[in-house]
Write a structure and sequence with these properties.
Blueprint: E1 4-11, E2 15-18, H1 30-40, E3 43-49, H2 50-56, H3 70-81, E4 83-87, E5 99-102, H4 107-116, E6 120-124, H5 126-134, E7 140-146, E8 153-155, E9 165-172, E10 178-184
Parallel strand pairs: 1-6, 1-7, 3-4, 3-6, 4-5
Antiparallel strand pairs: 2-8, 7-10, 9-10
Helix pairs in contact: 1-3
Length: about 190
């Protein structure tokens, strides 16, 4: 059975973006990018909300020539090889290959896909992740905690949801970023 994985870059105060929507503090260096690339190789289908898709779709046309860093070329290949599902009531159409648009997030459909999929699924973006957490669908949480406090913004985890987690791994990067890998404990 495939698992649903939530992976996010966050500030120390738990934000994926600051109050102005900026994420300039979150750009990964090569060491962090390489680890994210390895983690993402296990994903067969990305699930995005509209805003996260609008950020990630840049990988569809990202330059991948020899002048680009190896980690960038690698991630572009990983992203392009995976299927994508975008949940949005306002996006008129998707602009990337291997991508379909769904108007409604259906937890039962995700449960069925988890039962049938050969590779893990991911959920991207805190809004969509909140719906997946509330539905009890998330199995793993990867947080890449940056050594910055942004003072408010978009929270990485949903309010009003209780999760009991088991720490599976942690890693400190040279940049000061800390990776925390948890499994969601089921009651």
């Amino acid at each position: 059975m495939a698992e649903l994985v939530y992976s996010a870059i966050t500030s120390l105060d738990g934000m994926v973006a600051d109050a102005d929507g900026r994420v300039d503090w979150a750009e990964p260096d090569e060491e962090l990018h390489a680890v994210v690339n390895e983690q993402e190789r296990a994903i067969g289908t990305y699930r995005y909300g509209r805003r996260m898709y609008e950020v990630m779709v840049a990988w569809e046309t990202m330059p991948t020539g020899p002048d680009q860093p190896a980690v960038v070329r690698d991630y572009a290949a990983v992203w392009r090889a995976a299927d994508k599902v975008v949940y949005s009531t306002t996006l008129p159409a998707v602009s990337s290959a291997r991508t379909r648009l769904e108007r409604v997030f259906d937890p039962d459909a995700v449960r069925r896909l988890k039962a049938e999929a050969a590779r893990h699924l991911s959920v991207g973006g805190p809004g969509l992740a909140a719906a997946a957490f509330r539905a009890g669908l998330v199995d793993q949480v990867h947080l890449f905690v940056h050594p910055v406090v942004v003072g408010g913004g978009t929270p990485v985890l949903p309010a009003g949801v209780r999760l009991d987690l088991e720490l599976l791994d942690e890693h400190r990067f040279g940049s000061g970023v800390v990776h925390l890998h948890h499994r969601v404990r089921r009651a």
